[in-house]
Amino acid sequence: MTDYDVIVVGAGPVGSTYAYHMANKGYDVAIFDMKNRIGEPLQCAGIVSTNINLTEQVPEEIIYNKVKGAKIYSPNKTLLHVKKDETVAYVLDRVYYDKHLFQRALDAGVTPYLSSRVLDVDLENTKIKTVDNTYTSRIIAVASGPVSSTSKKMNPELKDETFTAIQYTVSTKKQDMENVILEVHNELLPGFLWKIPLTDTKQRLGLFTDGAYKDADNILLDAMNDDDEIIEKHTGLIPKYNKDKRIVYNNTILIGDSASQIKPTTGGGLIVGSNMARLASEKSDLMLKENDNKYLLDYENEYHKRYDHEFKAQQNVQGIIRELSDDDFNYMFEQLQEHNVDRIISEYGDMDTQTPLLKQLLKRGIMFKLLPKIGVRRLKNIWKSL
């Protein structure tokens, strides 16, 4: 006899979503989190494409702002302006969005254990150990973030790699509310800097990088206007996608950041995580009904079928970006601007799926205009990944 049908470790958006789906299917679910305040501190840029509506309905009151495009600047301030007539992304109050998803899980019948650190996940016996007790279940789903001891236990031969992310909430002067600003800085590669408008006079200013924290922090400070004021400051880690990571072992699965289910070029994981929470719940339901964990392996296999092709292409692009200089970027942006690539990006670009855009750039010969900076070998790698 087990304590629960399902135990979820981590009450972030992905863990709460999976717990909700499992409780909705009639299972006895418990969710554990080391924090006592869900969603705090903020650990995300909080911008998500409207594709989220295909998986989850976002309450209107949680949306700070709706944006239609992005202004992308090279180091010498050459501009590519990408935009559409309709809303392409929501800027969320991520703290309250996380609380909303957690409360939805509780309303579905999930039992919460807050301020309860899980010290160990026993992969062989499907049980967890906390400071005060041991709990058993038929399935354990780990959604505890990018630095997961369970992930390390499943993948002893792999090193969990992460980017450093820093973000300020800034009081600023009146700003453009319809566009996100993205800036390329050589010191941040393959990451970038963002300015996300929350209100007329408030924005999220942030970046992610492989580089040193101090250097990155200085870049953020330099990006502020003289009259800007920091309201809050947050730091965190973004996991790097790794196709070789094992995410199922016996009756324990990894989802979300713990499974490195992250878009390589942007570090975004909310939609991927939501999709995988739903898929994992469907396979978990079959496993519990038929008592056969081959269905959990189906979750792992279907995840790879759905995302490996796209993420590999993004990794190839990221590998090119990593080696470019400021002069390279300036040249490339000038070529892209000259050939009106912002219009192509506006038509074919998507925050979540970037291979259709890459195919168009190859089809129209735009990639060959960048050949002096990309190089033949790198262009071949992109071609192969498409």
Overall residue-averaged pLDDT value:
90
Number of domains: 3
**Percentage of helical residues?**
25-40%
Distance between the termini: 49 Å
Per DSSP, the total helix count is 12
Judged by helices, strands and strand pairing, the structural class is alpha/beta
Overall 3D shape: globular
Question: Care to count the β-strands?
Answer: 18
Overall CATH class of the largest domain: Alpha Beta
- Mind telling me the C-alpha Rg? 21 Å
By CATH, the architecture of the largest domain is named 3-Layer(bba) Sandwich
Strand content: 25-35%
Order of helices and strands: EHEEEEEEHEEEEHEEEEHEEEHHHHHHHH
Poorly predicted ranges: none
What would the CATH topology of the largest domain be?
Answer: FAD/NAD(P)-binding domain
Largest sheet: 8 strands, mixed
CATH superfamily of the largest domain: FAD/NAD(P)-binding domain
Structure description:
The chain has helices at 13-24, 94-107, 149-154, 213-223, 270-290, 294-322, 326-338, 341-348, 355-363, 366-369, 371-374, 376-385, and strands at 4-9, 29-32, 47-49, 63-67, 69-73, 79-83, 89-92, 111-113, 118-122, 127-130, 134-142, 162-171, 179-183, 193-199, 202-209, 229-239, 248-249, 252-254. It is an alpha/beta fold and 386 residues long. The chain has three domains: 4-62 and 92-159 and 243-307, FAD/NAD(P)-binding domain (3-Layer(bba) Sandwich); 66-88 and 161-239, D-Amino Acid Oxidase, subunit A, domain 2 (D-Amino Acid Oxidase, Chain A, domain 2, 2-Layer Sandwich), CATH 3.30.9.10; 312-385, no CATH class. The strands form three sheets. Strands 1, 2, 8, 9, 10, 11, 17 and 18 form an eight-stranded mixed beta sheet that branches. Strands 6-5-13-14-15-12-16 form a seven-stranded mixed beta sheet. Strands 3-7-4 form a three-stranded antiparallel beta sheet. The model has no long low-confidence stretch (mean pLDDT 90).
